[in-house]
Design brief:
Helix content: over 70%
Structural class: mainly alpha
Distance between the termini: 108 Å
């Protein structure tokens, strides 16, 4: 009889632990649900003015960077103020060339 009582106590303790674990899981799911609901509400509301401003500034910076890169590209081309044919080029990619070379 005592063995049966001990087994019942152990079973009840195990059940209590299982119940506490499940309650904790439910609490975690409720928290996740609240976060997801808030995320959905934020997405439906669209970006706020700060987000828009940051994105516009980023776009402007990218446009300026493209413009600067395009202008720098012109500095890397070899041009002559006259028509003619190039017989030989004694330079290779990466060499620095001055106007007197």
């Amino acid at each position: 009889m005592r063995t049966t009582a001990n087994a019942n106590i152990t079973s009840l303790q195990s059940s209590d632990i299982t119940i506490q674990t499940k309650k904790s899981e439910i609490k975690n799911y409720e928290t996740q649900l609240a976060v997801l609901k808030q995320t959905l509400a934020d997405m439906k509301a669209g970006p706020d003015s700060n987000d828009k401003t940051l994105q516009l500034n980023s776009l402007k910076q990218s446009q300026l960077s493209l413009q600067q890169t395009s202008q720098q590209k012109d500095n890397y081309e070899i041009r002559a103020p006259f028509d003619g044919t190039v017989d030989a080029i004694g330079f290779k990619v990466g060499d620095t060339v001055s106007s007197n070379a």
